[in-house]
Design the sequence.
């Protein structure tokens, strides 16, 4: 029974991926045109607004990651980290005062992981954990290795004014399905509110 359920989940994700690829083909937007345009905007902006130019450059890197890497089975961890760093920089642009963010990495960044695997956690932080009223926002992100496992942890202050974060929201539910297809039962995913003060997420996956 479990085998057929897993097979159905796998077929569903493959179908969704095919539909996304078809939509991209229908759009008929050539990536090189998009990147050339962004580069032109970058150089124009650099003359008048260097900070804006830097953000455009980060956005260009993110789009390139989507186009070039997101369909690969695995990517270097360094590439995934750079993607997260770009995303965080763009989010910080919208928040004043800027949140206090600590990103601690002690793992070999040439290890390989599936692309976009860590994005859900960071996206949820900015969706549910940023309090723009009080401005007291603290975010901790860490990547480490323990017993041949990648350990990814996030911790952020709670925003009581935001939409409540369910332990198994759509993003986390989809992530759990993907993890099950990739690793079977050989992974650990846990999220929780701690002492009614902050939210924590923990992911452990095997390293090959």
Sequence:
């Amino acid at each position: 029974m479990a085998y057929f359920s897993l097979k159905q989940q796998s077929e569903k994700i493959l179908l969704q991926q095919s539909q996304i690829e078809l939509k991209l083909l229908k759009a008929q937007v050539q990536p090189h045109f998009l990147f050339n345009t962004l580069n032109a905007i970058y150089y124009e902006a650099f003359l008048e607004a260097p900070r804006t130019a830097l953000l455009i450059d980060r956005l260009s890197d993110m789009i390139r990651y989507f186009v070039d890497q997101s369909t690969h089975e695995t990517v270097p961890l360094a590439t995934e980290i750079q993607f997260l760093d770009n995303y965080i920089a763009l989010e910080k642009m919208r928040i004043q005062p800027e949140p206090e963010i600590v990103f601690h990495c002690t793992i070999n960044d040439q290890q390989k992981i599936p692309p976009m695997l860590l994005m859900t956690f960071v996206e949820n932080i900015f969706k549910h954990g940023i309090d723009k009223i009080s401005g007291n926002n603290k975010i901790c992100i860490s990547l480490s290795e323990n017993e041949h496992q990648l350990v990814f942890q996030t911790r952020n202050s709670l925003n009581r004014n935001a939409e409540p974060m369910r332990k198994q929201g759509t993003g986390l539910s989809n992530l759990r399905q993907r993890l099950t297809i990739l690793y079977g039962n050989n992974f650990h995913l846990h999220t929780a509110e701690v002492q009614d003060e902050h939210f924590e997420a923990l992911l452990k996956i095997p390293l090959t």
About this structure: The radius of gyration is 19 Å. The first strand starts at residue 75 and ends at 76. The CA atoms of residues 91 and 126 lie 7 Å apart. The chain has six helices and seven strands.
